[in-house]
Amino acid sequence: MVEPGLGDAFGQFDGDVRFEWGPTGATRLGDDAACLVVVDVLSFTTSVTVCVSRGMRVFPYRWDDAGAQAFAASHDAELAVRRRDVSAEHPWSLSPAVLSTAPVTPRLVLPSPNGSTIAAAGGGTVVAASLRNVGAVGGWLLAHSYGTSSHPVVVIASGERWPDGSLRPALEDGLGAGAVIAHLESAGCTLSTEARAIAAVFRATPDVGAAVRSCGSARQLVNAGFGGDVEVAAHLDCDRSVPVLRDGAFSSS
Fold it and tell me: SS3 for 108?
């Protein structure tokens, strides 16, 4: 049961740019936002950025959902498989490195446990941001008057999961969210206390790429043999694509 006043206390109404973590944060703040920016650097939103820049449409979908195959078929789309299940017949997975060279398919269903699940549940305008496209996303938000009192924006760092299923705040997602927010702050947008703090973390990190390459999530991928995904994700502001969710799929703005 939610205590009276809890929503107002955590609504971050002191700023037009707001920040939170994970699916619960997205649900809590999303209803009051004109735009939801999802950040999942390793690897969903980086994968989406790569795909959209290559001309694909990407459908987010819940992770480990038995209906994924039927959903893909109903949308005339290919279904991405797990990283270790990539084959000649199924060359798409939740791997930015694989997706940068895989055959271009017009429509791809891309499940993930964090970013994709958040995006699939989002309402209104949803944008996928990664370190690769922070400048493009920030510019697009400003051009569409997001981050103003009439069009507040919520930036969600998706985070990862501990083995028990609880949220693990992930450094790479905090840095990606902070990068987007710092861009809006530089343009004069009013930030909530939480948004200002995560932007300060980004600004105080002297080498964002090095921080991403050495964080726990990256070490986990490297140890599993997927270091290429870390390299693709760690490049800052190298992509001009802005994936916006329309009719259930991310496509270029």
Answer: strand
> How far does CA 239 lie from the centroid of its chain?
15
CATH fold group of domain 13-245: putative 2-phosphosulfolactate phosphatase (3.90.1560)
The rounded distance, in Å, linking the Cα atoms of 189 and 146 is: 9
pLDDT tens-place string over residues 44-95: 999 999 999 999 999 999 988 889 999 999 999 999 999 999 999 999 999 9
Give the pLDDT confidence of 132-175 residue by residue, as tens digits: 999 999 999 999 999 999 999 999 999 999 999 999 999 999 99
Q: Domain spans of the chain? A: 13-245
Tokens coding 15: 């700023």
Work out the number of other CB atoms within 10 angstroms of the CB of residue 166.
Answer: 9
SS3 state at 60: strand
Does the structure show a pLDDT above 50 at 226? yes
